[in-house]
Amino acid sequence: MSLTVLHQGKTGSTPAGSPRTRRSTRSAIGFLTPATLILSIFVLWPVARSFWVSLTNDDGFTTPQFVGLDNYVTAVHNPRVEGALIHTAEYALVTTPVSIALAVLLALCLNQRLPFRGLIRAAVFLPFVASLGITAIAWTAMLDPQIGFLSGTLSHIGIPLGDGLRDPSLALPLVMAVGVWRNVGFFMILYLAGLQSIPKEVYEAARLDGASRTRTFRSITWPLLANTTMFAFMIAVIFSLQVFDQIYVMTAGGPYFKSETLVMLIFDTGINNYQLGYASALSWILIAILLVASGLQLRLFKNRTVQY
Amino acid sequence: MRRFVVGAMAAACSATMLSACSSAPDATNGNGKETVTITFWNTNTASDRPAVEQIVRDFNDSQQGIRVNMTIMPYDVFQQKILPAYKSGSGPTVAAFEASTVAGYAARGLIQQIDDLYSPGLLDKNAMAPALLAPSMWNGHTYAAPFEAGPAMLYYNKKLLAKAGFKEPATTLEGIVEQAIKTTRYAEGKDQSNVYGFPIPDHASLPIWAPLIWSRGGEIVSTDGKTSQLDSPQTVAAVDYWKNLMQQQHISPAGLAGSDMSNLFSAGRATFVLDGPWSTTNYTAAKVDYGVMPFPAGESGSQMTIAAGAALAVASRIPNASRQAALKFLAFWNSKQSQVTWSVKSSYPPNRTDIPAGELAANPTASLFAAKQNMRFFPGAVLKANDIVNNVFIPTVQRIERTPGSAADVLKSASAALQSDLQ
Amino acid sequence: MAARRLSRYSGAQWLGSAGLLIVAACFLLPFVWMLSTSFRTQGDLESAPTQVLPQHFTWVNYIHIWHYIPLGRDLANTVIFAGLVTVASVFLDALAGYAFARYDFRGKNVWFMLVLLTLMVPISITFIPVYEFLSQLGWLNTFQGLIVPRIADAFGIFFFRQFFTALPKELEEAARIDGAGEFRIFLTIMAPLAGPAVVTVGLFNFIANWNDLLWPLMVTSDADMQTLPASLALFKGQHNSDYGLLMAGSVIALVPVIVLFLVAQRRFVSAIATSGIK
Fold it and tell me: Which of A25, A118, A132 sits opposite C106 (nearest CB)?
């Protein structure tokens, strides 16, 4: 029952070319066709086409000219792209572990028998259910340095937020905080599910051996949650590399690009400024990063998945 | 439901006489002439929306063979949709573009030359406010008609002025600045209660820094739209002047958005703000005791304010009938009667100069904003207006607000970036 | 009854719960602010912005919002859009996930990799070509244009694959020996077992599409076709926003997903637990 994403499902031992396998292949294709068609037409084909566009100087109207790798070269030398890459990396490196650590903590607490447990779980998950476009507006208003109720309250109790989202050094951390706020509940649910599927007998045995709580967690719970952790990490990295909504609403990448991530930059380049060729090149840089990150994670987690 | 009714009608038609169907009732007018439907996109989602809807209704009522089908959408969505829409042929016949972006669309061939708009029977060029015509010109031809233009004026809080012992706002820029300094109540870390003399927004607003620079004799883009003057000594001096007022006299927090500025004024915590006519409703609702005056000239500059606005352009590659219908609509929009309706309902000043003040009496704000003053769009008729504003001007100003010492170095590198966008 | 149930908790449990309730309150803060703001006039908000509660409670925003936004129509559109996408997508995702889980065929890994790749593509990359394509089909401003491009999604396929992989192999073998067709095996034997996965994928899908803003704004321009979040976006003027009205509309948009979530919540955790993701 391991969650190895790729090398799975080697089912029967029928030799290739046997009637059984041919029938199996035909059925599989039948089952896969509808979803594949939709994904190919509306996602894969546009993405593939964008690779071609990334090799041109397409500006949205005049006939595109082939320019080779020029767009990629320009991107590599552009300080704004460098900034966006750094911010994206910072966002991923901070929000992923923070979200997951908080989620594990909350899941451990909320897996116990507690009064109001359901209510607390629902409250933590609620941000994930609500539209980030809307809740980000609320956060922006609450964090306003001059008239925000949250920044006012915080400065009363001795935690001044200064210029808040307008402060170039605070904009990205605040946007990260909102990202964590939104996604923690989702990861918590994953971990709750993970905790529930650990057999009770395992703990029973640990208890009989007289293992302490931390010891039980370190040597039983956490290793048995490896599948969940791997899945959560992959999703968290995808979430953070694609972060857009709250940045778009809260800072639009500012002040002076200090909270601009790669997706924000792609959006601005392609959709606001119509530099389609250049934007496509940036998109492919992002896709490459996502592929490498996912591949690394697969490798990292490969030997750690558990079966029970 | 409506879909169903149409379907049922079509079925009934096909059962009886096919030929009559092709000229179904809503496709023709009383004379049996085909109705031309033109689509119109704009971004007037805010308080000016009813005024736009009114004039489009008036136009549709006044025309026999033309119908305007309007879609209003948020600015961002408009920006995102317009290019693919034009490319795929589903773009609007008429669109209201932010004034400074007209040249870019003209150069891409997305909108067409409409020199003949200013011909007898349509529109008289001499009746239009000259400042509104400038951004619609590209390569010596007209590519758009005025749609709306709201000049920024100086709003002042009478109560805050009186509290500091001023009966009236000053009449010179230096006087205003003096009053702004005197009315500022600033304490470090007391953002929640500070009073600011002159909050200056730097993004998501009118480009207020442009008139600030102009007022002290500085310039950003030369009037012909060809060269950057962002690093000229006068510009550097003007920027430093305002920057020091912010950093040392605390007349404004750094990094404000337009709405932050409005919120401060609404809350009675700003003495002066430079803002457009659309804000009067909010300030009145917030019960601020305020007055409005033109933005005065500084001692080293001339009187000039910034205008926010849009212009109406006609899509390329459309049938001649649609083009003619679109021109009629553009002329109707700028007719005397429509402009009175527009101004009275929206508080924007009229696009024409020949409307007597008395006609606008129904809306005092409109009359105020129609006061004679010089105004300009920023950055004007240049190809990469969006890029210049969003990726050069705004970040530069934001950086300067946070940088101690002179802005000269930041402006120098920004000027190079601006120059490359102007080429 | 409830009191008796509550009295079964120990003091330490009450203490832990109190701490967690504070955490929960932090998570709920923006929602409290939204709800409170929806009962305030803009003037009230501006005169006392640092107060979280209304100075003067008013229903006026909930009345006025009807003048600005065709709420009934928008809600209907949103339900049709999110509902149909969810139904179709759960079905297509289940089919595809099933094939990846239960069949062996050449190129399976590459195929699956391509599906996962779509999970990583941000919409800003695909938007312009997709818009042009929909326009050529004449599908802009139509429900099919809104719905069809959305009816398969990688996350759902992945989830169903995990779920079906976890089911014992013997299930379909018996049916196969009896000579049942593959699709019939799927429909009559496997699908009925997939309830928890259907709830999970369906809920995620519904939430995502209900909340989606960019997609409906791009595909529709007619007021008749707009969804609720799109209409709310229209509301945020370029120069001013009326927070009270905006939040009243937002609260109305939030209520259906929150109710749906609360109803499905209990099955949700167990659904994820029984799937392969754990």
Answer: A25
